[in-house]
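Hi support team,

I've been running sequence recovery on a batch of backbones for a student project. Most finish fine, but this one hangs at about 90% for roughly twenty minutes before it completes. I'm not sure whether the input is malformed or the queue is just slow. I've pasted the structure tokens below so you can try to reproduce it. Let me know if you need the job ID as well.

Thanks,
M.K.
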């Protein structure tokens, strides 16, 4: 397995490259993915995650990952997965996942941790862990925010996959396109997102994460503090003037 990294302007593309095994991840690949995220340069504005081979994003963790492991080893593997998801959620860059096909288990958790998702309507998503005798954990905790509690319970308790088209009403996927258009559309969107004001994007992403973990009043108070703090930077005033001028 290799993790391919391509930097193009202000966009870093991170590709999971194991097409012969549906881009399934080995335990050793998880820290590599995290390093690809945290190792992006300060100029990087957007992270795009893809699979290779044109058929799958990733089948998740390789089936052999948890065979014969001890409690300590299992805790270490899942801690690495949790660290990767946290790195994606807390990265200063916007993250986009391109789902040409299957996105299962830990790979689906990565898609949930990311900000935006582009997918083919027949791409399969799911968290099959209960079928293996283990619960879905880590960023599976975000699933109900995207698809609602009832559908989240169905997916988590049955372990069944669903086609993206079945979840169209939920808002899980931001853009649904033809299979051959998934990666090009994600790349084009990434270029557009990279042009947005970096400071505003960084603060907005931090606020979104904050809002998931605090009361409404705390979210409002934090938002007010962030809004005021933004005007310490000349970048904010310049962006306001530039946008106002562009509107005539």
């Amino acid at each position: 397995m290799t993790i391919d990294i391509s930097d193009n302007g202000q966009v870093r593309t991170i590709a999971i490259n194991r097409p012969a095994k549906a881009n399934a991840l080995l335990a050793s690949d998880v820290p590599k993915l995290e390093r690809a995220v945290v190792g992006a340069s300060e100029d990087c504005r957007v992270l795009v995650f893809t699979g290779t081979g044109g058929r799958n994003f990733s089948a998740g963790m390789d089936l052999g990952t948890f065979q014969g492991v001890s409690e300590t080893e299992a805790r270490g593997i899942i801690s690495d997965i949790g660290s990767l998801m946290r790195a994606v959620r807390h990265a200063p860059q916007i993250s986009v996942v391109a789902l040409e096909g299957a996105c299962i288990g830990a790979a689906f958790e990565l898609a949930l941790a990311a900000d935006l998702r582009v997918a083919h309507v027949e791409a399969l998503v799911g968290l099959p862990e209960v079928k293996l005798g283990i619960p879905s954990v880590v960023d599976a905790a975000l699933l109900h925010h995207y698809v609602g509690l009832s559908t989240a319970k169905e997916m988590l308790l049955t372990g069944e996959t669903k086609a993206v088209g079945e979840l169209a009403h939920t808002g899980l996927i931001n853009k649904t396109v033809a299979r051959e258009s998934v990666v090009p559309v994600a790349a084009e969107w990434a270029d557009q997102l990279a042009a947005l004001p970096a400071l505003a994007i960084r603060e907005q992403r931090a606020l979104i994460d904050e809002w998931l973990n605090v009361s409404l009043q705390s979210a409002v108070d934090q938002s007010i503090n962030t809004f005021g703090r933004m005007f310490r930077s000349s970048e904010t005033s310049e962006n306001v003037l530039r946008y106002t001028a562009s509107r005539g």
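--
Follow-up from support: It reproduced on our side and the slowdown came from queue contention, not your input. The longest strand covers residues 2-8. No action needed from you.
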